[in-house]
Amino acid sequence: MTLLKVSSLAKKFGPHAVLRAIDLDVQPGERIAILGASGSGKSTLLRCLNFMEMPDAGTVALDGQVIGRRESELVKVRQRIGMVFQQFNLFPHMTAIGNVMEGLRTVRRFTKADARARGEKELARVGLADKAETYPAHLSGGQKQRVAIARALAMDPELLLFDEPTSALDPELVGEVLNVIRALAEEGRTMLLVTHELGFAYHVATRVIFLADGTIHEQGTPDEVLKHPKKERTQAFLARHKEFSL
Amino acid sequence: MSYRWDFTPVIANAPLLAEGLVNTLKVTGVSLACGLAIGLALALMRLSRHRVASWPAGFVIEVFRTTPPLVQLFWFFFALPLIVGVEMTPFLAACVTFSIQSAAFFAEVFRAGIQSIERGQWDGARAIGMTHGQALQRIILPQAVKRMIPAFMERAIELMKTTTLVATIAYADLLFAANELSQKSFRPLETYTVVALIYFFVIFLASQLARLLELRLARSGESTVH
Amino acid sequence: MKWDFNSVFANTDALLVGAVGTLHIFAICLVAGLSLGLVVGLGRYARAPWFRWPATAFVEFFRNTPVLVQILWFYFALPMLLPFEISPLAAAALGISLNSAAFSAEIYRGGIQSIEPGQWDGARALGMGWGQAMRRIILPQALKRMTPALTNRAIEIFKMSTLASAVAYVELLQQGKLIASLNYNPIEAYTTVAVIFFVFLWPMVQFTYLLERRLRRSE
Questions:
Q1: Minimum-distance CB partner of B3 among C81, C187, C197
Q2: A3, A52, B97, C99: least buried by Cβ within 10 Å?
Q3: Does A82 touch chain C (CB under 8 A)?
């Protein structure tokens, strides 16, 4: 049963059509890497999936049910979809564990004790059990992003959306975050990953999508798209990312 | 609601209200002009390295920012004449009070404006041989003044509201005219409502003009936001 | 010239009564003004236009009209529409509170807007509604930033309490007027009142400077 079904998704910003008629089926367990040049609509696509941006046209269905536009419904849908941002967006006035617990307490109405227990488990999973009481201001970029991942995981999402999770990190901190994402992939979690880390995408993704001009220009297995791209624009894009070598 | 509205006494006495408005603007104008001049002097004294200048300036600024304007007005109108032996008209008392009050406010704005000009400007000026005074006059102040225009406008508008206090010492401003008219006509509701609306329109207009001016300045490349 | 402070000291109880009156109206207007201001400030930020427009109108009107005019309107004009009188305290408190609400609404709005959109993203992605995001994530961060401006507002409210003397509410300035007229010593009377206000307000002003410095350092 298709986990997420996107049909004819379109989004405009002013006169500029960022997404045109995107169709996408996501099966459980798939790991989809979304590539494209800046401005190709990668982030917008991701943000439309949990309605952080409102699509202008098209539908998104989760577990066979089309998602409506009412805030009360969207709030529930977002509990089932986890999102990790480029800029982490951790809550600075809460500790690491506070951040992880926040969704559970405020949205899922867990008791403090239950939320705490779950929070500690998730922080341990991303390797930051000892930083539970630390505030974000005292964490490195890589640590912040790992807390953000723990925060998303605590909600038991059916689907994870990663919006360029390592683009804002110093190079030496990228690895720790990618390791966490790889571990999640090996667990079989369904995820969509917008990234510039082509090597990582090659090794972790089950499918690669290349976006250009607001549509899916090319898609296929990592081997097909990254090693033997058929379309010219894909080839041009990959050529520009020469540091990627297999 | 069985109240019967009757605006005729208000309309009939429009000249009285107009004169009041003019007097309000007179006090505002005089106080702003004097306040600017005194404020600049206070700011420079405050920034001076000589304590004999910075202390008294600091004292005046603190006192006038930390006491209620109405108390200051009463003091200047009732108390000062007895100390100095000078006859104080309401107009004079109002202008003196609001000038010094505005000066205290402007002094801080001037000080912040002057201090916000980067050291590099001072260095550039002194490097070509300017004295402190010349640098201040030719390089620093012109730039500082541009940055302070929004604060100046804000204060001008604030002052238009504060001048209503003069009605309490029987100066014939717009509010005083309203009081008189309300008593004469036995129509306080209509009188005060109309006067409130007059104040609103005049001050709202001034605020919008100020906002326009800010936008113009921002567009012309002179950003007043720092 | 002879300064005669004795007659002032002889009237300490009158001044005390005045001080109580000042603090009384200050407390009322502080609570009413800042709470109503929060409601209006959130209203300015709301997505529904039928919340935004009235809130904006309220702010524009009460920021652009002098407080004294409002106080006199509530005292002289409003009773014409109502079957009962409005006390000096009620009139003054209404005028000052509504004015303060309008100013603090702008402080709240500015504070909320200064929180980066990423915080809204983080909250909404977890499934929080507007109210939850405001309450748990946005406002706690915004309030910290707004404390200096709100303390300034409190200082202004304290100073505005003197306007209540225009409708003969018994506060410090009113008592000062009384003492001055009974003892023919306006210099001593008004100087004393000024000093009392200074003594009350100066610590508050210094506290605001401290808050501002603390805030600048932590950001």
A1: C81
A2: A3
A3: yes
Do A44 and A53 touch, CB atoms closer than 8 A?
Answer: yes
Under an 8 A CB cutoff, do A78 and C130 touch?
Answer: no
What is the CATH code for B8-219?
A: 1.10.3720.10
Q: Which helix (H) or strand (E) holds A209?
A: strand A207-212
Q: Are A46 and A161 in contact (CB under 8 A)?
A: yes
Spatial distance between the Cα atoms of B91 and B37, rounded to a whole number of angstroms: 19
Those residues whose C-beta lies under 8 Å from the C-beta of residue A36, and which sit 6 or more positions away, are: A42, A210, A211, A212, A217, A237
Q: Hey, what are B180's tokens?
A: 């008189």
3-state secondary structure of A23: strand
Cβ contacts (< 8 Å) between B203 and chain C: which residues? Answer: 64-65
C129 touches chain A (CB under 8 A): yes
Dist CA B162 CA B203 (whole Å): 12
**Rounded to whole angstroms, how far apart are CA atoms C77 and B181?**
13
The tens place of each residue's pLDDT in chain A, 246 residues long, gives 889 999 999 999 988 899 998 999 999 999 999 999 888 889 999 999 999 999 999 999 999 899 998 988 999 999 999 999 999 999 999 999 999 999 999 999 999 999 999 999 999 999 999 999 999 999 999 999 999 999 999 999 999 999 999 999 999 999 999 999 999 999 999 999 999 888 899 999 999 999 998 899 999 999 999 889 999 989 888 888 866 554
CA B226 distance to own-chain centroid: 23
Instruction: Break chain B into its structural domains and give their ranges.
Output: 8-219
Report field, pTM of the whole predicted structure over 0.95: no
If DSSP codes are grouped into helix, strand and coil, which group holds residue B149? Answer: helix
Whether C125 sits inside 8 A of A79 (CB atoms) is no
B191 interaction partners in chain C (CB closer than 8 Å): 77
Count residue pairs from A and C with Cβ separation < 8 A: 62
Q: Which two tokens stand for residue A17?
A: 């059509």
In the numeric block, the tokens 């790889």 are attached to: A182
Cβ B69–C159 below 8 Å, yes or no? yes
CA distance C48 to A182: 43
Closest CA to C76 of C90, C59, C60: C90
**Do the Cβ atoms of B188 and C194 come within 8 Å?**
no
Is A85 in Cβ contact with C119 (below 8 Å)?
Answer: no
B205-to-B80, B212, C65 alpha-carbon distances in Å: 36, 11, 12
